[in-house]
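Example: Membrane associated rhomboid family serine protease.
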Amino acid sequence: MTLSISLVIIIITCLISYTALQNYDQLDKLSLQPYLVKRYNQYYRFITSGFVHADFQHLLFNMLTLYFFGGFIERVFAQLFHNKVVYVGYYLLGIIVANIPSYIKHRDNSYYSSLGASGAISAIVFTAILVNPWASIYLFFALKLPAVVYGALFLGISAYMGRKGGGNINHDAHLWGALFGLIFPLIFHPELGTNFLYMIMHRSQFVQ
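Written out as C-alpha coordinates, the predicted fold is:
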Protein backbone atom coordinates (compact mmCIF):
# COMPACT_ATOMS: atom_id res chain seq x y z
CA MET A 1 0.00 0.00 0.00
CA THR A 2 1.43 3.36 -1.08
CA LEU A 3 1.55 6.08 1.57
CA SER A 4 -0.43 9.18 0.57
CA ILE A 5 1.69 12.30 1.01
CA SER A 6 -1.44 14.44 0.92
CA LEU A 7 -2.91 12.49 3.82
CA VAL A 8 0.30 12.99 5.81
CA ILE A 9 0.16 16.74 5.08
CA ILE A 10 -3.49 16.84 6.17
CA ILE A 11 -2.71 15.11 9.47
CA ILE A 12 0.29 17.37 10.20
CA THR A 13 -1.66 20.51 9.27
CA CYS A 14 -4.66 19.52 11.39
CA LEU A 15 -2.47 18.79 14.42
CA ILE A 16 -0.52 22.06 14.16
CA SER A 17 -3.64 24.13 13.40
CA TYR A 18 -5.59 22.55 16.27
CA THR A 19 -2.86 23.18 18.83
CA ALA A 20 -2.35 26.74 17.55
CA LEU A 21 -6.06 27.49 17.83
CA GLN A 22 -5.84 26.45 21.49
CA ASN A 23 -2.81 28.68 22.03
CA TYR A 24 -2.87 32.05 20.28
CA ASP A 25 0.74 32.77 21.20
CA GLN A 26 1.69 29.80 19.02
CA LEU A 27 -0.68 30.98 16.29
CA ASP A 28 0.98 34.38 16.38
CA LYS A 29 4.48 32.88 16.18
CA LEU A 30 3.63 30.72 13.16
CA SER A 31 1.56 33.14 11.06
CA LEU A 32 3.01 35.27 8.24
CA GLN A 33 3.76 38.73 9.59
CA PRO A 34 5.76 40.53 6.90
CA TYR A 35 6.89 43.30 9.23
CA LEU A 36 8.53 40.79 11.59
CA VAL A 37 10.02 38.87 8.68
CA LYS A 38 11.66 42.04 7.41
CA ARG A 39 12.77 43.39 10.79
CA TYR A 40 13.91 40.16 12.47
CA ASN A 41 14.59 37.89 9.45
CA GLN A 42 11.90 35.42 10.56
CA TYR A 43 11.78 33.75 7.15
CA TYR A 44 10.43 30.52 8.60
CA ARG A 45 7.02 32.22 8.66
CA PHE A 46 6.79 31.84 4.88
CA ILE A 47 6.31 28.09 5.45
CA THR A 48 4.82 27.79 8.96
CA SER A 49 1.93 30.10 8.03
CA GLY A 50 0.70 27.37 5.67
CA PHE A 51 0.17 24.96 8.56
CA VAL A 52 -2.05 27.17 10.74
CA HIS A 53 -5.56 28.44 10.08
CA ALA A 54 -7.83 31.21 11.31
CA ASP A 55 -10.59 28.87 12.51
CA PHE A 56 -11.87 25.31 12.10
CA GLN A 57 -14.05 26.23 9.10
CA HIS A 58 -10.99 27.62 7.30
CA LEU A 59 -9.04 24.46 8.16
CA LEU A 60 -11.85 22.12 7.12
CA PHE A 61 -12.37 23.74 3.71
CA ASN A 62 -8.67 23.69 2.83
CA MET A 63 -8.11 20.13 4.02
CA LEU A 64 -11.20 18.79 2.24
CA THR A 65 -9.98 20.41 -0.98
CA LEU A 66 -6.53 18.90 -0.46
CA TYR A 67 -8.12 15.50 0.21
CA PHE A 68 -10.19 15.57 -3.01
CA PHE A 69 -7.48 16.94 -5.32
CA GLY A 70 -4.18 16.01 -3.67
CA GLY A 71 -4.28 12.29 -4.40
CA PHE A 72 -4.92 12.95 -8.09
CA ILE A 73 -1.98 15.37 -8.36
CA GLU A 74 0.25 12.90 -6.50
CA ARG A 75 -0.51 10.30 -9.16
CA VAL A 76 0.09 12.83 -11.94
CA PHE A 77 3.45 13.80 -10.42
CA ALA A 78 4.40 10.13 -9.98
CA GLN A 79 3.99 9.72 -13.74
CA LEU A 80 5.72 13.00 -14.63
CA PHE A 81 8.63 13.02 -12.18
CA HIS A 82 8.86 9.44 -10.85
CA ASN A 83 9.66 10.92 -7.44
CA LYS A 84 7.45 11.71 -4.43
CA VAL A 85 9.88 14.33 -3.13
CA VAL A 86 8.89 16.63 -6.00
CA TYR A 87 5.29 16.74 -4.75
CA VAL A 88 6.46 17.71 -1.26
CA GLY A 89 8.68 20.46 -2.66
CA TYR A 90 5.84 21.64 -4.93
CA TYR A 91 3.45 21.91 -1.96
CA LEU A 92 5.92 23.87 0.19
CA LEU A 93 6.88 26.13 -2.73
CA GLY A 94 3.18 26.77 -3.30
CA ILE A 95 2.93 28.17 0.23
CA ILE A 96 6.09 30.26 -0.13
CA VAL A 97 5.38 31.68 -3.61
CA ALA A 98 1.81 32.60 -2.64
CA ASN A 99 3.11 34.50 0.40
CA ILE A 100 5.75 36.56 -1.42
CA PRO A 101 3.36 39.21 -2.86
CA SER A 102 1.80 39.71 0.59
CA TYR A 103 5.25 40.15 2.08
CA ILE A 104 6.22 42.74 -0.53
CA LYS A 105 2.94 44.64 -0.14
CA HIS A 106 2.78 44.61 3.68
CA ARG A 107 6.40 44.43 4.87
CA ASP A 108 6.12 47.88 6.49
CA ASN A 109 2.71 47.21 8.05
CA SER A 110 3.17 45.99 11.64
CA TYR A 111 -0.54 45.11 11.92
CA TYR A 112 -0.79 42.77 8.93
CA SER A 113 -0.97 39.02 9.49
CA SER A 114 -1.84 36.14 7.17
CA LEU A 115 -2.19 32.39 7.60
CA GLY A 116 -3.54 29.28 5.93
CA ALA A 117 -2.65 26.73 3.25
CA SER A 118 -4.71 28.45 0.57
CA GLY A 119 -1.71 29.19 -1.67
CA ALA A 120 -0.66 25.54 -1.89
CA ILE A 121 -4.29 24.38 -2.15
CA SER A 122 -4.91 26.78 -5.04
CA ALA A 123 -1.77 25.45 -6.74
CA ILE A 124 -3.03 21.88 -6.49
CA VAL A 125 -6.49 22.79 -7.84
CA PHE A 126 -5.03 24.65 -10.82
CA THR A 127 -2.55 21.91 -11.65
CA ALA A 128 -5.59 19.61 -11.74
CA ILE A 129 -7.33 22.07 -14.08
CA LEU A 130 -4.27 22.13 -16.34
CA VAL A 131 -4.22 18.33 -16.55
CA ASN A 132 -7.99 17.84 -16.94
CA PRO A 133 -9.80 21.12 -17.75
CA TRP A 134 -13.19 19.52 -18.36
CA ALA A 135 -13.39 17.65 -15.07
CA SER A 136 -16.34 18.62 -12.90
CA ILE A 137 -15.80 20.83 -9.87
CA TYR A 138 -18.61 21.40 -7.39
CA LEU A 139 -18.62 25.00 -6.16
CA PHE A 140 -19.64 25.00 -2.48
CA PHE A 141 -20.11 21.23 -3.03
CA ALA A 142 -23.37 21.97 -4.90
CA LEU A 143 -22.97 23.96 -8.15
CA LYS A 144 -21.39 21.81 -10.89
CA LEU A 145 -18.92 23.64 -13.15
CA PRO A 146 -16.28 22.54 -15.66
CA ALA A 147 -12.87 22.90 -14.01
CA VAL A 148 -11.66 25.42 -16.60
CA VAL A 149 -14.70 27.67 -16.05
CA TYR A 150 -14.20 27.49 -12.29
CA GLY A 151 -10.55 28.41 -12.80
CA ALA A 152 -11.36 31.46 -14.92
CA LEU A 153 -13.91 32.69 -12.36
CA PHE A 154 -11.51 32.04 -9.50
CA LEU A 155 -8.65 33.99 -11.09
CA GLY A 156 -10.92 36.89 -12.06
CA ILE A 157 -12.51 37.22 -8.62
CA SER A 158 -9.18 36.82 -6.79
CA ALA A 159 -7.53 39.50 -8.97
CA TYR A 160 -10.44 41.90 -8.41
CA MET A 161 -10.66 41.32 -4.66
CA GLY A 162 -6.88 41.52 -4.31
CA ARG A 163 -6.89 44.99 -5.90
CA LYS A 164 -9.93 46.05 -3.87
CA GLY A 165 -8.36 45.04 -0.56
CA GLY A 166 -10.08 44.79 2.81
CA GLY A 167 -11.47 41.75 4.56
CA ASN A 168 -9.58 38.89 6.16
CA ILE A 169 -9.10 36.70 3.10
CA ASN A 170 -5.70 36.80 1.41
CA HIS A 171 -6.85 36.86 -2.21
CA ASP A 172 -3.31 37.56 -3.39
CA ALA A 173 -2.25 34.16 -1.99
CA HIS A 174 -5.13 32.50 -3.87
CA LEU A 175 -4.16 34.18 -7.13
CA TRP A 176 -0.40 33.58 -6.95
CA GLY A 177 -0.85 30.05 -5.69
CA ALA A 178 -3.10 29.34 -8.67
CA LEU A 179 -0.57 30.80 -11.10
CA PHE A 180 2.19 28.74 -9.48
CA GLY A 181 0.06 25.62 -9.94
CA LEU A 182 -0.06 26.33 -13.68
CA ILE A 183 3.54 27.41 -14.19
CA PHE A 184 5.40 24.81 -12.09
CA PRO A 185 4.43 21.70 -14.10
CA LEU A 186 4.76 23.59 -17.40
CA ILE A 187 8.40 24.46 -16.65
CA PHE A 188 9.33 20.78 -16.48
CA HIS A 189 6.72 19.41 -18.90
CA PRO A 190 5.72 22.07 -21.43
CA GLU A 191 3.79 19.44 -23.37
CA LEU A 192 1.09 19.80 -20.73
CA GLY A 193 0.30 23.19 -22.24
CA THR A 194 -0.18 21.65 -25.68
CA ASN A 195 -2.36 18.92 -24.19
CA PHE A 196 -4.41 21.55 -22.33
CA LEU A 197 -5.05 23.54 -25.52
CA TYR A 198 -6.01 20.37 -27.39
CA MET A 199 -8.53 19.43 -24.70
CA ILE A 200 -9.96 22.96 -24.68
CA MET A 201 -10.43 22.96 -28.47
CA HIS A 202 -11.84 19.41 -28.58
CA ARG A 203 -14.26 19.56 -25.69
CA SER A 204 -16.64 16.95 -27.10
CA GLN A 205 -13.95 14.27 -26.85
CA PHE A 206 -13.53 14.79 -23.11
CA VAL A 207 -17.04 15.64 -21.88
CA GLN A 208 -19.57 12.85 -21.59
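The domain at 5-205 is CATH 1.20.1540.10 (Rhomboid-like fold).
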